[in-house]
Specification:
- By secondary structure, the protein is α/β, with parallel strands linked by helices.
- It has eleven helices and ten strands.
- It has one domain (15-227, 281-314): Alpha-Beta Barrel (TIM Barrel), CATH 3.20.20.
- Helix content is 36%, strand content 13%.
- Strands 3-4-5-6-7-8-9-10 form an eight-stranded parallel β-barrel, surrounded by five helices. Strands 1-2 form a two-stranded antiparallel sheet.
- Helix 3 runs parallel beside helix 4 and helix 4 (146-158) crosses helix 5.
Length: 335
């Protein structure tokens, strides 16, 4: 059936400004990292994207290597975009990234000008787009000068292939250097995409004030720690189809007592707030003013809706934050 977006789509969410830019993003954005490859039915992917937009989630985040296989998420998104979302292009913020290995040879990885611009062209072709709203360098390159990498991002903007640029997985010093290199071209560093959740708190060690300093916003990935901060493993077992059962991102073995004690205590705090554990985890990462949005994945419409409902919850109180603090331990693992 033809898709007509909900006329109420802007009544259900909130939008935050990205740093000092004019861009706004929804508090919850949809990441296409794991559930939009060739191993998932296209009909399910379409249903999730449609529901996201109907909820006011205007930001879809991709990368050149998202799959499986490499490039599949962009191709699938491009197919769905052409059928459903082309009339709404001016209402969408579509991002992509380059920086991880895409193929054989010396020009398919890291941060050279050659790789980044050719990768962006290939991404736009796969998605069927004339431009990306945001183009990221996906990870720091220890060998390529930052001036070359950021110069490629500036070219992406100046050539009309991207509207804004950002970095991902950069530490505070690298972020400041990237902003300085971009400023030489008159281009701001608009956004940074780090990993952040209750069990991975490294960005609290200096990145947040750097974002303020350079005027960039933050959008965090893995706010649910790849499922660890949900009720999926709380009973001590590993469900079929979970990331832990697949072994791609989480190692096999019995669940650890420390993890179970912490996640069950966090779940009790969530229940006392009338939230799921996942909703509590999202509320917690969004408490920082530097964090514009949290990226969530979704394998179903129901999962997306549950995560989105985090926005219905109240702000965390000082007492709740104090109760969470000894449980939100950096380095906590499933096993």
């Amino acid at each position: 059936m033809p898709y007509d977006a909900s006329p109420d789509r802007y009544d259900t969410t909130e939008y935050h400004r990205v740093g000092r830019s004019g861009l706004k993003l929804p508090a919850i954005s949809l990441g296409l990292w794991n559930n939009f490859g060739s191993d998932r039915p296209i009909a399910t992917q379409r249903a999730i994207l449609r529901r996201a937009f109907d909820l006011g989630i205007t930001h879809f985040d991709l990368a050149n290597n998202y799959g499986p296989e490499i490039g599949a998420a962009e191709r699938n998104f491009g197919q769905i975009f052409a059928g459903d979302f082309a009339p709404y292009r001016d209402e969408l913020i579509v991002s992509t990234k380059a920086g991880y290995e895409m193929g054989v040879g010396p020009y398919q990885d890291w941060g050279s000008r050659k790789y980044l611009l050719s990768s962006l062209d290939a991404s736009l072709d796969r998605m069927g787009l004339e431009y990306a709203d945001i183009f990221y360098h996906h990870r720091p390159d220890p060998e390529t000068p930052i001036e070359e990498t950021m110069g490629a991002l500036a070219t992406a903007v100046n050539s009309g292939r991207a509207l804004y640029v950002g970095v991902s997985n950069y530490n505070p010093e690298q972020t400041a250097a990237a902003a300085e290199a971009l400023a030489e071209h008159g281009i701001p560093l608009t956004i940074h995409q780090p990993r952040y959740n209750m069990f991975d708190r490294h960005i609290e060690e200096g990145l947040l004030p750097v974002l303020d300093q350079v005027g960039a916003g933050g959008i965090v990935f893995s706010p649910l720690a790849q499922g660890l901060l949900t009720d999926r493993y709380m009973d001590g077992t590993i469900p079929d189809g979970s990331r832990a059962s697949e072994g791609r991102w989480l190692q096999p073995g019995p669940l650890g007592d420390t993890y179970l004690q912490r996640v069950r205590a966090l779940n009790e705090i969530a229940q006392n707030r009338g939230q799921s554990l996942a909703q509590l985890a999202l509320t917690w990462v969004l408490r920082h003013p530097q964090i514009t949005s949290a990226l969530v994945g979704a394998s179903s419409v129901a999962q997306l809706e549950n995560n989105f409902a985090a926005l219905d919850g109240p702000a965390l109180t000082d007492d709740e934050l104090a109760a969470i603090e000894p449980l939100a331990v950096d380095g906590t693992r499933l096993r």
